Amino acid sequence: MANCSFLGIPLHLGTGRFGCEMGPSAFRAAGLGDALSELGHTVADLGLIEPDPVKPVKHANPVLKALPEIVAWTSAIARRVLAIPQGTMPILLGGDHSMTAGVLAGLSQRAAEAGRPFFLLWLDAHSDCHTLVSSTSGNLHGAPVAYATGEASFTGIYPPLSTPVDPRNICMMGIRSVDPSEKQFIAESGITVHDMRSIDENGVAAPLDAFLQRVKAAGGDLHVSLDVDFLDPGIAPGVGTTVPGGATFREAHLIMEMLHDSGLVTSLDLAELNPFLDDRGRTALLLVDLVASLMGRRVLDRPTRSYA
Ligand code: MG
Ligand code: MG
User: Fold this and answer.
1) Closest CA to 289 of 261, 256, 262
2) What is the pLDDT of residue 131?
3) SS3 breakdown of the chain: % helix, strand, coil, rounded to 5?
4) Ligand 1 centroid from CA 99, angstroms
5) Secondary structure class of 234 (helix, strand, coil)
6) What is the Cα–Cα distance from 80 to 38, expressed in whole angstroms?
7) What distance in angstroms lies between residue 142's CA and the mean position of ligand 1's atoms?
């Protein structure tokens, strides 16, 4: 059983609209704590993170929105996450995906301090690989992956990274909306991407299993970042960036069940839930069920098969 620590991140500034700042409250209202307690886990709710004081920060790209504020959030989030003791499982309740810049900065350093390599499973319709230069929307929820890997445009603007995430240790699933500059970043960096076409053709089990084998062989920490828009909008309407053709109910649960069986997941963030756009808590409740699957809930206990 795990010792879980909830940290709420009431952040919406990476999206250019209000709503995601209500996410932590919606996860609590949907019963996330009770769901994990019923599975036998210990849950400590550490409350909400607050941003650091905002300092003036400028970048030549004029479209970037709330850059000084996002920088202030990133440093605060990284510090809080890093302070969570080893052996405790941080579960970050977002908040838009710009929060994951700080989450990855803190967690990659935490893994390095324990002497373990750091791996990232990214479940999202988007790759969030924009740099400060390439962003055309200016919404910084599209940039956390590029920052966390140490991309140069963030240097001197975002907080310095003590341990950049190795792009070869990143596996993305569910991707179906990628801008040309992000495509180039993915190709050059060596990130593994299983887009929806690949999932249609091959399913989720084989590619996920291959990634988990790598994490296991390396003895790594594994962080899972789940963007609500990974899921098909038909089952998860509570997000501002819906893209048709997302993961189904069963594909999502199978991923969570396989992650639980692997025993490899050391941290989790839940990003982009917008309760204002949700349908009577339906998306929040689905997310709670998915986290419960990740943490061991199953319909039937399956006997371990012997191949001897
Ligand atoms: Mg995202
Ligand atoms: Mg997304």
Assistant:
1) 256
2) 98
3) 40, 20, 40
4) 10
5) coil
6) 27
7) 6
Give the number of other Cβ atoms within 10 Å of residue 16's Cβ. 15
Which residues carry out catalysis? 97, 124, 126, 128, 141, 227, 229, 272
Of 71, 82, 60, residue with least CA distance to 7:
82
Cβ proximity of 219 and 117 under 8 Å:
yes
In the prediction, which pLDDT does 303 show?
Answer: 67
Distance 46 CA to ligand 2 centre (A): 26
Residue list, CB under 5 A from ion ligand 1 = 97, 124, 126, 128, 227
* DSSP states of 162-174: SSPPPGGGEEEEE
For ligand 2, an ion, list residues with CB under 5 A: 124-126, 227, 229
CA 208 / ligand 2 centre spacing (Å) = 19
For the chain (308 residues), the mean pLDDT of every run of 10, in chain order, is 96 98 98 98 97 97 98 98 96 98 98 98 98 98 98 98 98 97 97 97 97 98 98 98 96 97 98 98 98 91 64
Ligand nearest to the CA of 247: 2
Report the predicted TM-score, pTM, of the whole model to 2 decimal places: 0.96
- Residue linked to tokens 């893994």: 111
**Å from CA of 263 to ligand 2 middle:** 26
